[in-house]
Amino acid sequence: MPKTTFNATAHLQKGVQVKAQSRNFEITVDEPKSLGGTDTGMNPVELVLCALGACQSIVAGAFAGKFGITFSDFRVELEGDLDTDGFLGKSDVRKGYSEIRYNIHIKTDEPKEKVEEFIEFIENTCPVGDTIANTVTTKLNKIIIE
Amino acid sequence: MPKTTFNATAHLQKGVQVKAQSRNFEITVDEPKSLGGTDTGMNPVELVLCALGACQSIVAGAFAGKFGITFSDFRVELEGDLDTDGFLGKSDVRKGYSEIRYNIHIKTDEPKEKVEEFIEFIENTCPVGDTIANTVTTKLNKIIIE
């Protein structure tokens, strides 16, 4: 399936709680109380970090065999800087992340050089990494007033 | 809290299943069988669409009062084009999304022009939208071999 179209829907509930669905899966997205929510789920920018770390982990799991590397554990810790003054209209800073950093933990007996090559391969292959690091055309198709 | 650092971790399980956490919340990320997974959760690129739609919905919920608009329902349908040949190393196309489109459904009696202004405000304010549409510095901090 080369050119694929992925789908999702997001439906606002009470306050700023959202039910987001893709195929038969649903997640609850919310904000912590400090950002005006009821704290019933991660917020969208935390979800972006999860998507990136999950994507890197999936590339690791999917390509380990082809790469000829074995490991018994793989874990990514991520952090992203975001100035909420942008979102709140208090400043002209960008609204989204300015920088996202990650540490990769891997339990393996492979030589350091091979591990580094593998991590570099993961970074260059990860679809979510490319989506975040580079520009993507995002556009409103239509507004449906009901 | 202007300059904020958000955090998450992703931990590879069996195959390509991942448990991703942020604060006290956890989600399961996986791939459908057609992409080599066991289909126990959304995949990372679906999660990105959910994050974008949830973020737009949260901006709608959070700023409706300030904007002086009332609505009884708000829903976003999203779709994104991604050529999986990039990820699979079969082609030089980019690995991530090339384009993401969305339809916004809003149940309201407000005039069309006001609704359009509100949607434009949402698009310009959404942190995840900015993160995806524009470039973000993403970088490996360190590799920890255990």
Quick overview of this protein structure:
Two copies of one chain form a homodimer. Chain A is an alpha+beta fold and 146 residues long. Chain A is 34% helix and 35% strand.
What are the SSEs and their pairings?
The structure is a homodimer of 146-residue chains.
Chain A: E1 3-12, E2 18-22, E3 25-29, H1 44-67, E4 73-83, H2 84-87, E5 97-107, H3 112-125, H4 127-133, E6 137-145
Antiparallel strand pairs in A: 1-2, 2-3, 4-5
Helix pairs in contact in A: 1-3, 1-4
Give structural notes.
The structure is a homodimer of 146-residue chains. Chain A is α+β, with helices and mostly antiparallel strands. Chain A has helices at 44-67, 84-87, 112-125, 127-133, and strands at 3-12, 18-22, 25-29, 73-83, 97-107, 137-145. In chain A, a hairpin with a 5-residue loop joins β1 and β2 (18-22). The first copy, chain A, is globular and about 55 Å long. The model of chain A has no long low-confidence stretch (mean pLDDT 96).
Shape descriptor of chain A reads globular
Largest sheet of chain A: 3 strands, antiparallel
**Biggest protein-protein contact in the assembly:** A-B, 110 and 110 residues
Name of the CATH first level of the largest domain in chain A: Alpha Beta
How many domains comprise the coordinates of chain A? 2
Give the termini distance of chain A in whole angstroms: 35 Å
